[in-house]
Amino acid sequence: MSDTVDFSDADAFTAYCVANPLDASGAVCAVKTTVEGVIEGLDTFFLLFAGALVFMMQAGFAMLCAGSVRQKNVKNIMLKNLLDACGGALGFYTLGYGFSYGASNNAFIGTSDFAITDASSGPDYIGFFFQFAFAATAATIVAGTVAERCKMTAYLCYSFFLTAFVYPVVVHSIWSSDGFLTAFTDEPFRGVGMIDFAGSGVVHMTGGATLLWLPLSLDLVEDDSTTKTATSSKLLSRFQPIPSLFKFSVPSSCGSDGTDSTQGPPWPLPTLILLLPLLFVL
What we know:
Layout: H1 10-19, H2 26-66, H3 74-101, H4 122-140, H5 152-174, H6 204-217, H7 234-237, H8 241-249, H9 268-275, H10 278-281
């Protein structure tokens, strides 16, 4: 049989193993199945691990905010960071993921897979968690801007709306194969499309644009009595870059769907070691 089956062809090999499970080459088929299972398991674990590192940005921004506000407002800002993740989870789960990656006939927004109804296996749910971690990061960028300036309910509504609609529209346009700016299609925008590495545009530009707009929409009143008030902890606020370095290094070595881990440069650990002293010097 090996003379008539091209074992270098994955599809032909799989079809042969299905048709001849008890053949003399069954051991080879068993090895192939085992190896494929190990590869899938490693890919799934890496995606989960990368999503956890991205979600660590929540802890980083929480430390940054807690170290930058007055001591009496530390509990308030920590609770806002917690609500950021909670509100973002509700928004991205109910609407955001479907708007981002749901199938559609338009290049603007997805129209299916709301509340991840199309998920059927562990990797699908872990893929949702990976994408949610990026959505929560985009939402929490604004936390420091509105620290001591925004009511809890208003901030919760902001987190829900950003992850449920604003951020998903950008994601669908660039990361989804149906988006009008995507590079993952046969006819990309202007022949090239947009390749967003590590979320520099999709995540951080969206969060940064919101960061500029949101304070302008608030009725802020300058209080001269607090301009010289010491912050809670200057040292604590400088730990924020640590999760940021991990966020850019390990997770960004895979694609937006977490499947390509071959493009990550081997620089994160040396860079982290070199930059750690700067956290306490600058």
